[in-house]
């Protein structure tokens, strides 16, 4: 069935020149809907608004403050009654909402997949990129190297309104040591500490509705925990878990409260299960992130009416994951032992994130949501020889 837009907004964006700003014209904002064929690409769960029937979208009353650098001109799109769709649907409608995603440096990770899902639901996307990776990321965007992975379900490309340099290890300029200030990879960039980025976002756009923490780092990740130095251990906690606390501290005050005021972070099974070879304090950092989620949910919920959740994702063959050296083994193990015998796709995590960051999950906060094909539920490896005679069903 040819998809047509039943209702929505057509946006014309007039942007002023902004230094180091990656910006594309925003058109064809979509509203996402659950109810796709699980055998198709999971991005088919995000069709155009034609799949939204007479069910009123669960959207927020509040709207982000307009950007000082953008002028939005909206008009309702007309449509004859005869062409209105009849299929039922439960939409995720994030049109008019603004998301800041910290930790995107390429098109392979979960952060990028989350950005695509939010964009498919109509959200405006802002990105925070690690300073040393900023030049490569911007250049790749300019030259179209990411175009194939930027395609949304309706055929348009994901639009990134602005990319900010960000190093979430440093809360404010006073925290930055001299060796970092003199580092040539940071040359030419400014206002990249967490406090400064939040201030820049507030100045540029006023408010946001969604905050995503998709970053982690452990300089000694390949070392066993018993061989990890104090410096390496604390560095892993600083970059992987406290960075979320810092982002919330500085961004939550500029977030719109209510059903669309939501944040998520990303963790994985190493926080609860032993993964030999995954060291450097990273398992401790992930456990801290999950524990902090519950405390932060209470504090941010009571003070700012903002929801806090974490996604525990399965293994993904991303550039960051390759740093541990055996991500392919982790993926193979998951396929052999998880209840759903398939490789996890990044967009499956993106789809789950879109739900958790939408009004559909307005009563969910302080939760760790597993998106790992059910691997977290398993207590033993079913591909072990001890189960050889048990006739365990397998995906043939």
From TrEMBL:
Q: Which Pfam families match?
A: adh_short_C2
Q: Quick check: keyword Lipid metabolism in the entry? A: yes
Instruction: Kindly provide the name given to this protein in its UniProt entry.
Output: enoyl-[acyl-carrier-protein] reductase (NADH)
Q: What is its EC number?
A: 1.3.1.9
Q: In which pathway does it act?
A: Lipid metabolism; fatty acid biosynthesis
Alphabetical GO biological process terms: fatty acid biosynthetic process
Q: Which SUPFAM superfamilies match?
A: NAD(P)-binding Rossmann-fold domains
Location comes to:
Plastid, Chloroplast
Which species does this protein come from?
Papaver somniferum
What family does the database annotate? Belongs to the short-chain dehydrogenases/reductases (SDR) family. FabI subfamily.
Q: What spans are recorded as compositionally biased (Polar residues)? A: 62-83
Function recorded in the entry? Catalyzes the NAD-dependent reduction of a carbon-carbon double bond in an enoyl moiety that is covalently linked to an acyl carrier protein (ACP). Catalyzes the last reduction step in the de novo synthesis cycle of fatty acids. Involved in the elongation cycle of fatty acids which are used in lipid metabolism. Required for normal plant growth.
Could you name the domain of life of the organism this protein comes from? Answer: Eukaryota
Q: List the GO terms this entry assigns under cellular component, sorted alphabetically.
A: chloroplast
Major place of localization?
A: plastid
Q: How does it assemble?
A: Homotetramer.
Which keywords describe this protein according to UniProt?
Answer: Chloroplast, Fatty acid biosynthesis, Fatty acid metabolism, Lipid biosynthesis, Lipid metabolism, Oxidoreductase, Plastid, Transit peptide
Q: What reaction(s) does this enzyme catalyze?
A: a 2,3-saturated acyl-[ACP] + NAD(+) = a (2E)-enoyl-[ACP] + NADH + H(+)
Q: Where is this region: Disordered?
A: 62-88
């Amino acid at each position: 069935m040819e998809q047509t837009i039943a209702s929505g907004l057509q946006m014309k964006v007039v942007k002023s020149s902004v230094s180091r700003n990656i910006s594309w014209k925003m058109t064809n904002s979509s509203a996402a809907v659950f109810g796709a064929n699980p055998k198709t690409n999971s991005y088919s769960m995000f069709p155009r608004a034609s799949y939204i029937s007479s069910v009123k979208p669960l959207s927020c009353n509040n709207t982000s403050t307009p950007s000082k650098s953008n002028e939005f001109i909206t008009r309702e799109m007309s449509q004859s009654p005869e062409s209105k769709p009849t299929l039922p649907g439960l939409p995720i409608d994030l049109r008019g909402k603004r998301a800041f995603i910290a930790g995107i440096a390429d098109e392979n990770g979960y952060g990028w997949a989350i950005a695509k899902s939010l964009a498919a639901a109509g959200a405006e996307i802002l990105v925070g990129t690690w300073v040393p990776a900023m030049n490569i990321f911007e250049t790749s965007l300019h030259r179209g190297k990411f175009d194939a992975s930027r395609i949304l379900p309706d055929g348009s490309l994901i639009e990134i309104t602005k990319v900010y340099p960000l190093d979430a290890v440093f809360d404010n300029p006073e925290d930055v040591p001299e060796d970092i200030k003199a580092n040539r990879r940071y040359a030419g960039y400014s206002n990249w500490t967490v406090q400064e980025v939040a201030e820049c976002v507030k100045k540029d756009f006023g408010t946001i509705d969604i905050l995503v923490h998709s970053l982690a780092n452990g300089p000694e990740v390949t070392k066993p925990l018993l061989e990890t130095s104090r410096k390496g251990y604390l560095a892993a906690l600083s970059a992987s878990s406290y960075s979320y606390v810092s982002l919330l501290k500085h961004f939550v005050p500029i977030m719109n409260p209510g059903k669309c005021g939501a944040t998520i972070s990303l963790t994985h099974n190493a926080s609860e299960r032993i993964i030999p070879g995954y060291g450097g304090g990273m398992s401790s950092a992930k456990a801290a992130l999950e524990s902090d989620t519950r405390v932060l949910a209470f504090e941010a919920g009571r003070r700012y009416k903002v929801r806090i959740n974490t996604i525990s994702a399965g293994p993904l063959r991303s550039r960051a994951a390759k740093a541990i050296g055996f991500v392919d083994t982790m993926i193979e193990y998951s396929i052999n032992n998880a209840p759903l015998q398939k490789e996890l796709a990044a967009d499956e995590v993106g789809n789950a994130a879109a739900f958790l960051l939408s009004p559909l999950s307005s009563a969910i906060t302080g939760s760790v949501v597993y998106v790992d094909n059910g691997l977290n539920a398993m207590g033993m490896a079913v591909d072990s020889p001890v189960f050889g005679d048990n006739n365990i069903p397998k995906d043939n």
